[in-house]
C-alpha cells in the first residue's frame, strides 16, 4: 500500500455516533448536507474548485469536507500546510433540507439544537435568520415552533472566517494583547493575532506540536427537539456525602414545562451488577417554564468508585421519567477533594479520593485530531486504555483544545482515570475586560460544567493554561504596562474577574463540589505562581530555555508537577505514513514540516538532548531511535524523583500522552496509538510498587522504595555492581518493608561507594526490587554518559514461536543490552524499551495477524550498541 493510500485509509473521516441521552422524539439532521465557499468571498477567484456545491458530512469540518471531495490534498501527508491557509480566510456555506415529522408540527414546542458551531455562524431556516452564533464551545437552542413546514425545510448555515471577522477590531487596538504562535504563512499579521478573541479551539491557530489549520464547521450534531408537555433539560447526580457505609445523593432535575400542572416523577436506579429498582416516586406541581426539582436518594453500603490502582470502578445509572419524557445519567459514587494544607514552606496540592491521598501519576492530553469530529470512541479507547495499562491514574485535559467529549469521560470513568479539565484558554491573554466576552464565556462554562459534572473521573476545573505566568513572568504584563498602564490595569482586572470570580462561581454553583483552580501553573492567584513551595508547577527549563540536561529535574521538587517533558519522534512506520523514505532526513522539508518546535527547527533542540547522553548522529533512523531513548530515560528520571519526594510532591503529569497528528512531539503514544519507548518506561516507573535509583550530576545516587498500595509491602532489594560484559563485582540482598502510601528511603551513595576501583565507563549498578504480588522493578545507574562508555555487542538472540492465539518471543543477551527495541511491523509486543543484563533472558508475548514466517522476517531487535557505533565523536 502506498503511503498516500495508507494515510487516506487512516486519516479519513469517521462518522459521528450520537449519544444515548437524546430525547425519544429527536430528529438528527445529518443527511443531505452540501457546502461551498460562500458567494462574494475574496477567496472564490483563487479557488473556483470550492465555489460550487459539494457533498458534506455533518458533524464535520471544512477541511475534512474539502479533502473528501478531493479539493485539497491530505492535510497530514507531505507539507501542504502553507497552501491550505486560504481555507481559514474564507467564509463557508452549508445547507440541507429536512422534513418535519407530524409530531413536531403539532408539538407545543420545537427547538433546533446546535451543540457545536465553529465559530461565527449565521443560521437560516426557510429563509429566516434564526441565530447568530459566536462560540464553538456552547450549545445553541433556537425555538422554531411555527417556522417549520412538513416537507422541504431548508436549513442554511454560513460560517464566517474568524480571522477576517476579528482582524479589523484587533488591528484597531492601539496596544495588542499577547497571543500564542504567530502565523508564518501571511494569513494573519504577526502583531495582530486573533485567536485570543475567538471562542474556538486555540490549537487550530498552530502550536509547537501541530499544524495551523484554522478550520470551521458544524462540529457536533444538529437536532430538532419537539415536545408537548415537558422537557427534562438536565439531570445532575449531586453527591453530598459518600463513605463505605452510605451514599447521600440528590438527583437534581431541571424540567421545562409548557404549562403549569401536576406530574408524576419516577427515578430508577440501576446498580453496578445490573439490578434495576425504583428509587424515588413523587408527584410535583410544575410552573410554566423552568422548574428545579431535587430528589434525595440514599444508597446503603455503596459500591464505591476508585482511581486506577486503588480499587474497582463500579458505576450506577439513574433514569428519570416525567410523563413521556425520560433522561438518564451515569455516575460512580466517591468522595473527592483537593487538599491545600499549610506548612512551613507553603501549601500542599493533592487529591483525596474516598479518604485516600492519591499520588497523581499520568500525563497531559491534547486534542486527539486536528479535526475534532473525526475522533472516534475506538481511538479514544486505545489511548486511554494505554494510559491505564501504564499504571496511570490521572490525566490533565489541556486548555488550548476543546472540552473533552462524553466518550472521553465515559472511558475515563470506566478505566479509573481522574481528569483535570481546563477551561478553554490556552496561553494568550483573553479580552476578559470586555463584559460581553465574559458573559459569553460564563454561558460556555455553564454548558460544559453541567454536561460533565456527573462523571466520577472529573477531579478539577482549572481556569486556564499558563496565562497567569505569561502575564507575570514572560514579559506580557510588563510590555503592556510600559506601553499603556491604564489599559494594562484594565486587562489584568478583567483577567482576575473572569478567572478569580466568574468561573469560580460557575463551578461552585453548578459543579457538584468539584474544586476550582484559577490557572495552571499557579497558587490560585496568590502573588507567586509556578513555585515549588505551593500549588502546581510547570517545569520547562529542561527542554525549553535554557535547555538544561535532564539531571536538572532532580533539583526541582514541586508540590505537584503538572507539566514537564522531552520530545521524540514516533517510530518509522508512523513517519512513513506522511513522508516517503527519500523525504526523510534530520533537516529535510517534510520532516521539518512535522516538527513544529522552533518553527520547524526543533530537531536542533532534540539533537541537543540526544547529544547530552548519546552523542550526535547524521543518520535519521538512529536519530529517531535515540530521540526515543533520550525522552524515555529523561522523563523516567523526573517521574521517579517526583514519586520519591512524596508526600511533599503528590503529582507527576508529563507532557504529553497523545498526538494531534503524526509528527515529532512530547507524546508517549503517537497519533496512530503506537507506543513510544517512553510509554513502556512509564508502565514501569508508574508501577504501584517500584524502586527509584536516581543519580544526579554530582555523582550522588539516592535509592527509594515506592509504594502506592494502601497496605505495607514486603520484599527484597538486590544490588549488583557489574561490568558490561557480565562480571559481577558486588552482589547484595536485603529484606525490605515498604510503608503504605509512601516513599521509603533505602540508601544514599556517592560513586565511590558503588564503584570502588571499577572503571566507570564499563560498569553499572543494578537495583532490583522484588515484592510480594508485584511485578519486579529495576533501576540501573550509569556512572558516565552513554557516549563516554564502551558498549560491547550484547549478543542479542531472538526466537519466535507460536504460543496459544499469539506468539512468544524469547530474547537473550550475553552482555549488557541497553534500550532494547523490538520492531515487528504492526505487531504488539508485551514489553519493549528495556535493559537486559548479561546472561539474562526474557519471554514476551506478541500479538500479530502475520503468520510465523512473515513475523520472523519482519522482526528486528536493536540495542544502544548498534546506534552508538555510528554517533559522532565529541
Tag the structure with descriptive keywords.
single chain, alpha+beta, 22% helix, 874 residues, disordered N terminus, 19 helices, 6-stranded parallel sheet, 6-stranded antiparallel sheet
Description of the structure:
This protein is α+β, with helices and mostly antiparallel strands. 22% of the residues lie in helices and 31% in strands. The chain is built from 19 helices and 46 strands. The protein has a 6-stranded antiparallel sheet. A 6-stranded parallel sheet has the order 29-28-27-26-25-32. The longest helix has 26 residues, at 485-510. The radius of gyration is 28 Å and the shape is globular. The model is unreliable at 1-22 (pLDDT under 50).
Amino acid at each position: 500500500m502506498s503511503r498516500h493510500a495508507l494515510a487516506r485509509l487512516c486519516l479519513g473521516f469517521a462518522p459521528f455516533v450520537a449519544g444515548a441521552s437524546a430525547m425519544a422524539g429527536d430528529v438528527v439532521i445529518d443527511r443531505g448536507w452540501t457546502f461551498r465557499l460562500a458567494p462574494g468571498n475574496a477567496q472564490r477567484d483563487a479557488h473556483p474548485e470550492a465555489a460550487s456545491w459539494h457533498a458534506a458530512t455533518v458533524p464535520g469540518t471544512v477541511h475534512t469536507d474539502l479533502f473528501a471531495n478531493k479539493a485539497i490534498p491530505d492535510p497530514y501527508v507531505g507539507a501542504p500546510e502553507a497552501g491550505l491557509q486560504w481555507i481559514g480566510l474564507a467564509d463557508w456555506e452549508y445547507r440541507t433540507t429536512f422534513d418535519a415529522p407530524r409530531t413536531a408540527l403539532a408539538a407545543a414546542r420545537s427547538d433546533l439544537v446546535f451543540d457545536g458551531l465553529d465559530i461565527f455562524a449565521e443560521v437560516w431556516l426557510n429563509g429566516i435568520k434564526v441565530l447568530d452564533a459566536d462560540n464553538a464551545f456552547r450549545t445553541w437552542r433556537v425555538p422554531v415552533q411555527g417556522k417549520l413546514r412538513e416537507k422541504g425545510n431548508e436549513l442554511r448555515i454560513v460560517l464566517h472566517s474568524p480571522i477576517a471577522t476579528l482582524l479589523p477590531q484587533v488591528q484597531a487596538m492601539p496596544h495588542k494583547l499577547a497571543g500564542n504562535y504567530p502565523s508564518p504563512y501571511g494569513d494573519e499579521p504577526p502583531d495582530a493575532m486573533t485567536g485570543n478573541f475567538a471562542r474556538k479551539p486555540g490549537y487550530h491557530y498552530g502550536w509547537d506540536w501541530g499544524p495551523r489549520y484554522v478550520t470551521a464547521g458544524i462540529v457536533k450534531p444538529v437536532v430538532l427537539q419537539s415536545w408537548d408537555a415537558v422537557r427534562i433539560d438536565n439531570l445532575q447526580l449531586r453527591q453530598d456525602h459518600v463513605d463505605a457505609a452510605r451514599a447521600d445523593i440528590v438527583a437534581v432535575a431541571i424540567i421545562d414545562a409548557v404549562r403549569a400542572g401536576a406530574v408524576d416523577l419516577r427515578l430508577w436506579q440501576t446498580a453496578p451488577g445490573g439490578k434495576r429498582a425504583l428509587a424515588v416516586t413523587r408527584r410535583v406541581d410544575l410552573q410554566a417554564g423552568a422548574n428545579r426539582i431535587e430528589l434525595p436518594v440514599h444508597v446503603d453500603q455503596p459500591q464505591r468508585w476508585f482511581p486506577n490502582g486503588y480499587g474497582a470502578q463500579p458505576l450506577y445509572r439513574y433514569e428519570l421519567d416525567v410523563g413521556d419524557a425520560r433522561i438518564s445519567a451515569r455516575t460512580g459514587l466517591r468522595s473527592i477533594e483537593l487538599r491545600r494544607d499549610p506548612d512551613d514552606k507553603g501549601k500542599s496540592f493533592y487529591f483525596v479520593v474516598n479518604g485516600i491521598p492519591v499520588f497523581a501519576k499520568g500525563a497531559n492530553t491534547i486534542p486527539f485530531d486536528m479535526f475534532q469530529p473525526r475522533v472516534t470512541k475506538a481511538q479514544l479507547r486505545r489511548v486511554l486504555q494505554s494510559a491505564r495499562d501504564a499504571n496511570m491514574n490521572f490525566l490533565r485535559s489541556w486548555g488550548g483544545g476543546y472540552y473533552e467529549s462524553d466518550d472521553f469521560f465515559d472511558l475515563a470513568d470506566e478505566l479509573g482515570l481522574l481528569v483535570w479539565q481546563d477551561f478553554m484558554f490556552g496561553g494568550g491573554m483573553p479580552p476578559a475586560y470586555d463584559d460581553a466576552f465574559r458573559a459569553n464565556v460564563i454561558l460556555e462554562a455553564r454548558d460544559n460544567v453541567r454536561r460533565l459534572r456527573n462523571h466520577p473521573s472529573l477531579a478539577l476545573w482549572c481556569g486556564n493554561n499558563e496565562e497567569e505566568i505569561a502575564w507575570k513572568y514572560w514579559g506580557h504584563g510588563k510590555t503592556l504596562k510600559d506601553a499603556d498602564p491604564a489599559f494594562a490595569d484594565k486587562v489584568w482586572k478583567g483577567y482576575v474577574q473572569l478567572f478569580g470570580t466568574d468561573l469560580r462561581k460557575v463551578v461552585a454553583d453548578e459543579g457538584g463540589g468539584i474544586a476550582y483552580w484559577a490557572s495552571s501553573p499557579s497558587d490560585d492567584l496568590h502573588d507567586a505562581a509556578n513555585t515549588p513551595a505551593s500549588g502546581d508547577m510547570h517545569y520547562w527549563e529542561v527542554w525549553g530555555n535554557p535547555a538544561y540536561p535532564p539531571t536538572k529535574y532532580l533539583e526541582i521538587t514541586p508540590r505537584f508537577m503538572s507539566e514537564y517533558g522531552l520530545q521524540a519522534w514516533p517510530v518509522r512506520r508512523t513517519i512513513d505514513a506522511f513522508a516517503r523514505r527519500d523525504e526523510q532526513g534530520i533537516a529535510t522539508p517534510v520532516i521539518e514540516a512535522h516538527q513544529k518546535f522552533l518553527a520547524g527547527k526543533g530537531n536542533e533542540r532534540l539533537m541537543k538532548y540526544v547529544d547530552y547522553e548519546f552523542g550526535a548522529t547524521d543518520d535519521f533512523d538512529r536519530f529517531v531511535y535515540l530521540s526515543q531513548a533520550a525522552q524515555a530515560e529523561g522523563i523516567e528520571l523526573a517521574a521517579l524523583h517526583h514519586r520519591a519526594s512524596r508526600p511533599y510532591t503528590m503529582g507527576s503529569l508529563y507532557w504529553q500522552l497523545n498526538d494531534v497528528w503524526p509528527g515529532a512531539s512530547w507524546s508517549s503514544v503517537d497519533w496512530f496509538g503506537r507506543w513510544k519507548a517512553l510509554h513502556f518506561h512509564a508502565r514501569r516507573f508508574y508501577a504501584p510498587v517500584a524502586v527509584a535509583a536516581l543519580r544526579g550530576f554530582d555523582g550522588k545516587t539516592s535509592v527509594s522504595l515506592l509504594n502506592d498500595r494502601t497496605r505495607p509491602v514486603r520484599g527484597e532489594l538486590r544490588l549488583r555492581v557489574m561490568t558490561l560484559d557480565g562480571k559481577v563485582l558486588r552482589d547484595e540482598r536485603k529484606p525490605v518493608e515498604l510503608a503504605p502510601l509512601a516513599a521509603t528511603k533505602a540508601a544514599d551513595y556517592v560513586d565511590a561507594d558503588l564503584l570502588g576501583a571499577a572503571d566507570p565507563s564499563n560498569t553499572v549498578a543494578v537495583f532490583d526490587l522484588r515484592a510480594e504480588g508485584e511485578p519486579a522493578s529495576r533501576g540501573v545507574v550509569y556512572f558516565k554518559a552513554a557516549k563516554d562508555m564502551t558498549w560491547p555487542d550484547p549478543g542479542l538472540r531472538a526466537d519466535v514461536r507460536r504460543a496459544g492465539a499469539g506468539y512468544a518471543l524469547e530474547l537473550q543477551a550475553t552482555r549488557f543490552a541497553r534500550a532494547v527495541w523490538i520492531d515487528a511491523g504492526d505487531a504488539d509486543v508485551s514489553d519493549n524499551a528495556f535493559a537486559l543484563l548479561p546472561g539474562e533472558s526474557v519471554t514476551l508475548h506478541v500479538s500479530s495477524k502475520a503468520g510465523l514466517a512473515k513475523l520472523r522476517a519482519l522482526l528486528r531487535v536493536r540495542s544502544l550498541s548498534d546506534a552508538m557505533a555510528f554517533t559522532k565523536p565529541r
